[in-house]
Design a protein that fits this description.
The chain has 150 residues and is of the alpha/beta class. It contains 3 helices and 5 strands.
């Protein structure tokens, strides 16, 4: 059983790889679905990191939800906000995995998800409308699986 850590975006550091040799495999969307299904079937945990705003604004959560919808549309696999949140504290509060990355080792693999956001606003678009516009390409993401070679 191995856990799977999912990092949404190429802007993360992968220095926390542990000790040993590692490989990075580019995956097709169907392969991503299989990796997630195998992790869940074997009892492994899915956790992840997304670059949340420090104040968890509504705009940030809306963008993250759109990203999860794009991920599902491309891979056929559903992830939820809970996969990117910490365990509830003693008060039952959950917080996002801010500045968090688990170590990649024999018990955990990492899936790095790269996505492309393209938005060219019209010249007459208001600043408010521009800020509320967040578009994730729903037909393309890059997937890389980083795992320790044993």
């Amino acid at each position: 059983m191995a856990d799977l850590f999912i990092s949404m975006g190429h802007d993360i550091s992968v220095r926390n790889l542990g000790i040993g040799a590692f490989r990075c495999l580019k995956l097709a969307p169907d392969d991503v679905a299989k990796v997630i299904a195998d992790t869940r079937a074997s009892g492994g945990e899915i956790s992840g990191y997304y670059r949340f705003d420090s104040d968890l604004s509504d705009d940030c959560m809306k963008q993250f939800d759109e990203l999860l919808l794009a991920f599902e549309a491309i891979t056929g696999t559903r992830l939820t906000r809970n996969d990117f949140m910490s365990e509830p504290d003693e008060d039952g509060d959950q917080f996002p995995n801010l500045n968090y990355m688990t170590a990649v080792d024999e018990t955990c693999r990492m899936l790095v998800v790269g996505y492309f956001i393209e938005f060219i606003p019209p010249s007459n678009m208001s600043q408010k409308a521009w800020k509320e516009s967040f578009m994730v390409a729903r037909d393309h993401m890059d997937f890389y699986l980083i795992e320790q070679v044993i």
